Amino acid sequence: MKTFWRILGLGIIAALWVASGTCSAQKVVLRMIGPEDVNGAWAEIIKRFEARHPDVQIKYISGPWSTDDRQNMYLRSFLGGDPIEIVYMDVTWTAKFAARGWLLPLDPWFSPGEGSAFFPGPLKAGYYRGHLYRLPLTTDVGVLYWRKDLVPRPPRTWRELEETCRRYAHPPELYCLVFQGMQYEGLTCNFLEFLWAAGGQVLDEKGQVAIASPEGLSALNFLRKLRLKDWVPKAVLSFQEQHTLEFFLKGRAIFMRNWPYAMRLINQSPLRGKVGLAPLPSRTGAPAPGTLGGWGLGIARGTKAPEKAWAFIAFATSAEAQKILYFKRGWLPARKELFRDPALLRENPALKDLYFLLERARPRPVHPQYPRISDTLQKHVSAVLAGVETPEEALKALSETLKFIIRGSRENYFRRLLLDYELKESLAHTLFFSAVSVSLEFLLGLLLALLLATPFPGRWWVRLAVLLPWALPTAVMAMSWQWMLNNPFGVINDLLLKVGLISHPVDWLASPEGAMWSAILADVWKTTPFVVIILLAGLYSIPRELKESLEVDGAGPVKRLFYLTLPLLLPFIRVALIFRLLQALGIFDLIWVLTRGGPADSTRTLGLYLYDLAFRYDEVGYALFLTVLFVFFLMGISLLIVRLTTLEYERRP
Ligand code: GLC
Q: Which candidate, 507, 588, 570, places its Cα nearest to that of 534?
């Protein structure tokens, strides 16, 4: 009887297995990466699509908010040989992805006649060398939000902006303007608007560098002035979109530069009805163009079922889906006709003004080397805002570096090594970061290990608390530090102010020194437990009799520490030191999440530079060359540590 039930059970399991296999074999699974699906906009689109295409399953992978981070996720999937099928792309990604051959042209499915339904800018951004690779889904444009209840009208010129700031702003309670000043893609968008507002440009019509101009200088000077006068808070150097909006929602600024999605969230806040939308002010008074942004969809080369992927793209870019994205997320449609849709207009009458602004939105420079161009702009603009470069110095450096990027490097790797300024700079940051954080970790680690080796009540709980940070994923803890160190929302400033250690909030992440020390602090917090674990193991291995005999001989605790504990701990110190130094020298994740190398490249370590070279700048050869040299350097360091920490008695056979 028992055997019968067993066979029956196995039979059922096998049948279920086969059935599930055949079901999933029939379904085509297509993945895509997007930002967190707040309000379930994508879930709704996918549900409707799957109901009409039962043979397709769309898997929405929830990624970070930042465009740079999501681009990296796609890059990794392409380079790793398992391309994410549906490519959910920012407006600037097409040239690079298409030039690398990672996308399928959409021309076989999309007839050019259908293009007239979309805004021309976002559609054009999907073309590379005459082929369409990305169909627009949403569109974005940089706009000025202004407090209708605080000032009579939005400024049209920079001069009017200055006058309004002078008259109405009273920092630190009420600043004049906030924008996205962290060293990331958002800063490029913000800076370009200042540059265009002054009448300047990065590249001219022939693709030559044209930034070194009186207009370029005037844009940087104006930015510097806004900062120096304290009309813009220093904290903008650590602000992305959500930080900017948070600051504005708290009523701390009169004007905010952001994307149109923010209006929806403003309308759900106490500021509802008090905020207007306007074009960005310009130097001359002619309305300045906002940066063109927005997202679209493409298909990764290597996708097994491109037809199905296209079916999804066609649906997701349809008016039906774009409406869902608008109503659930506030993202503006890329289809022009929706700006006349009564339902949308009822919800947001400002759509009419946005239509006008969108038509005049200006794209960022289109170039396969765009990521590098953008990184260079971010670095120097961030340096001007942080006050570490004058506008003249920044403009000169910008122009020269951009010319170098456009021309392409022709030097051989060894010669380039000597000329590579970014390498020298990032190496210096890496060495400083490693030396300081590892020294602090050892000092603290030793103290904690000695403490935890001595019995006291509740020792297990203290041990657990000390070791906990080591167990947390670095990216998660870096994100928490980013918010904790943030000014004005961070808890750290709050605590320090309460206990009276500081008299006014510190902009931890907004100054070069502050950002470096913040990274060191986060690293020490996270990795000291590792040193503690190893040293604790070492302390337990020291025979008790030795300690006792020294005690009998009259040696006090200090003598015992230097003559017994430390020499016997040396092999453990060696292991921990090698591990920690190698990890610190190769630091990447913590800094990438915390500061992204900014401000003004002040926390850009070698790991970040190598990553940029290989994955963002298409310089895999040079990156590998540097990596090999770095590996030799690390081997040398390890050997040196072994040599310096091996005592005579250990060398004896
Ligand atoms: C928005 C825009 C995008 C831009 C990004 C910068 O998501 O739509 O085009 O690159 O912001 O942070």
A: 570
- What local confidence, expressed as pLDDT, does residue 16 receive? 53
Beta bridge partners of 209: 203
Is residue 449 a contact partner of residue 532, using CB atoms and an 8 Å limit?
A: yes
pLDDT attached to residue 558: 85
Residue with the smallest CA separation from ligand 1 atom 12 is 186
Please tell me the pTM assigned to this model.
0.84
- Among 152, 163, 161, smallest CA distance to 179 is for 161
Q: What's the pLDDT score for residue 261? A: 94
pLDDT of residue 572: 95
* Any ligand 1 atom below 6 A from CB of 140: yes
- Closest C-alpha to ligand 1, atom 3: 293
Q: Is 259 in the pocket of ligand 1 (CB under 6 A)?
A: yes
pLDDT at 639: 95
294 pocket-lining for ligand 1 (C-beta < 6 Å): yes
* 523 Cβ below 6 A of ligand 1: no
334 lines ligand 1 (CB under 6 A): no
Mean pLDDT computed over every residue of the chain: 92
Output the CATH code of domain 143-290+369-407: 3.40.190.10
Buried b (16+ CB within 10 A) or exposed e, 41-80: bbebbbebbeeebeebbbebeebbebbbbbbbebbebbee
> For a substitution probing ligand 1, which of 36, 67, 239 has the most ligand atoms within 8 Å of its CB?
67
The reply to whether domains 143-290+369-407 and 419-651 share a CATH topology is no
Task: Give the closest residue (by CA) to ligand 1 atom 1.
Answer: 293
Task: State the CATH class of domain 419-651.
Answer: mainly alpha
> Which residues in the chain show pLDDT less than 50?
18, 20-24
Per CATH, domain 30-118+125-132+296-349 is 3.40.190.10:
yes
pLDDT for the residue numbered 23? 47
pLDDT tens for each residue of 487-512: 877 899 999 999 999 988 888 999 99
Domain segments of the chain as ranges:
30-118+125-132+296-349, 143-290+369-407, 419-651
294 Cα–ligand 1 center, Å: 6
